[in-house]
Structure prediction request, 191 residues.
Amino acid sequence: VEVEAYGGQGDAASHARFGPTDRNRVMFGPPGVAYVYMVYGMYDCLNVVTDRDGVAGAVLVRAATPLEGIGAMRASRFAQAARRRPSVDPRSEERRIAALPAHRLASGPGLLAAAFGIERSDTGVDLCDARLALHLEPPADDDPPPVGPVRSGPRIGIGYAAEPWRGRPWRFWLAGDRSVSRPDGLRPASR
DNA sequence: TGAATGATGCACT
DNA sequence: GTGCATCATTCAC
Prediction:
């Protein structure tokens, strides 16, 4: 329900801006492949490589609305929290995650990766191969329809990039969906 | 309700 | 050594 587009060497906000490196190499490969990176030392973020082979480009998947597997998402969120925050009492973490409403389980890029159990080792996975555990699917017939129109605005957390890249409206979200990380486009969601 | 801050690993210069 | 495509907690009001 929320994504951001990142370009190649010309996009001053993109990991590909310095050219191919060990970290971003798959961004320059064929489309339909996962690119997962660690941000701020704590969270993994899922991207889908989108441009043709040889041209860097990817879409950051920032948020999702859980429709099924909600219990598995809570378990995965807890496992990730216990692993990454060993100083916090696991029992209190378990209570905190159990109390979260379903629409907050994947309401941000780090949270989404945690809810789906996605890690950096998933980089390079072919997301179009339905035989693999991690893959993309078309909507199911009984999925609820989108709740509102798609809106767009500047990408989040890229203040280091110069204009025009900083202000380019390459963030897209589903208006009215409660899982969007920043419904107003600026401040984090409060519910 | 909102601003400030700490946690934390690693890519990059 | 610097700074991050984040999140949860703390503190002020």
